[in-house]
Design a protein that fits this description.
This protein is α/β, with parallel strands linked by helices. It is 36% helix and 14% strand. The strands form two sheets. Strands 3-4-5-6-7-8-9-10 form an eight-stranded parallel β-barrel, surrounded by five helices. It has a two-stranded antiparallel sheet with strand order 1-2. The chain starts with a strand and ends with a helix.
């Protein structure tokens, strides 16, 4: 496993990180989830990403239990705040940030998180209020650094323009061969500000694994087949997307790796990406994904891959 610096922080994170969206505490049973966490450590994955809203606290509670036996300095832990935890608890107001960080720390069974992220932008709260609350969380020792997810360039610039506040060190956008929007503005801006990308859905929620075949039934044990995990995949399962993915398989073979490894290596070719977050319901999925770290692939193969998927999303 290779490691990269996370923005202007002193955190070194594994190129492949373990996420818990729709999986741990939600769609994957405890024994399989625990096995995945244990295997992640065996593989050198040191970065674990979650959020308070995942399973309305269930993912954090599971991780708190699964990580309790491990030294706190053996992993980098990130969580997020924004989405509703109840009818009244939501957003990035000062009250909510201070309330939700304490609740997250309780569920995670730790005194601090390494990275506390705004899960989205809160247009109903003054940005100065949000940044002051996040800065206080850092200065109180409850988080080491702060980040954001899916903020616009204008919102990012506005946050950095407020004097006297803690600075963001990470951005968490969706980014994959099937979703390249961050390349236009967010990645260049982030690089200029000392912010790294931690990307979610680098495998297009599993579509870039090649497991979904055009015109075929969904695999019984797949995310797309799951009521808990598959309800956001409809656009990714369109025939045009699946057919394009089929055409990527020979490129992965030519590169001497699996298709998931090829897709993850494509994401990691971008220097501003510190880590690619993967979900896993079985340890062997993590083993395959971890094999993408450090892969050296001919850029021409990547260019051919980009041409194949161009226009399908």
């Amino acid at each position: 496993m290779k490691y990269r610096q996370l923005g202007d922080s002193n955190l070194k994170v594994s190129e492949i990180s373990l996420g818990s969206w729709l999986t741990y505490g939600v769609g994957v049973d405890r024994d399989h989830a625990t096995a995945c966490v244990d295997r992640a450590f065996d593989l050198g994955i040191n970065f674990i990403d979650t959020a308070n809203v995942y399973g309305r606290g269930s993912a954090e509670s599971f991780l708190g239990e699964a990580l309790a036996k491990r030294p706190r300095d053996s992993y980098v832990l990130a969580t997020k705040v924004f989405f509703p935890m109840s009818d009244t608890d939501k957003g990035l107001s000062r009250v909510q940030i201070l309330k939700q960080i304490d609740a997250s720390l309780t569920r995670l069974r730790t005194d601090f998180v390494d990275l506390y992220q705004c899960h989205r932008y809160d247009a109903s709260t003054p940005l100065e209020e949000t940044m002051q609350a996040l800065s206080d969380v850092v200065r109180q020792g409850k988080a080491r650094y702060i980040g954001f997810s899916e903020w616009s360039p204008a919102q990012i610039e506005a946050a950095f323009a407020i004097p006297g506040m803690e600075k963001f060190v990470s951005s968490q956008p969706q980014y994959s061969l099937l979703w390249r929007r961050p390349e236009e503005k967010v990645i260049p801006l982030s690089a200029s500000l000392g912010v790294s990308q931690i990307v979610w859905s680098p495998l297009g929620q599993g579509v870039l694994s090649g497991k979904y075949k055009p015109g075929a039934a969904l695999p019984a044990d797949s995310r797309a087949k799951s009521d808990q995990m598959g309800n956001m995949m409809h656009d990714l399962l369109r025939p045009a997307v699946l057919e394009a993915v089929e055409h990527l398989k020979p490129l992965a073979q030519e590169a001497g790796c699996t298709l998931p490894q090829f897709a993850l290596a494509w994401v990691l070719r971008e220097p501003n990406v510190a880590s690619a977050i993967v979900g896993a319901s079985r340890p062997e999925q993590l083993e395959e994904n971890a094999g993408a770290s450090g892969l050296v692939i001919d850029p021409e193969l990547f260019r051919r891959a980009q041409a194949i998927v161009s226009g399908v999303r």
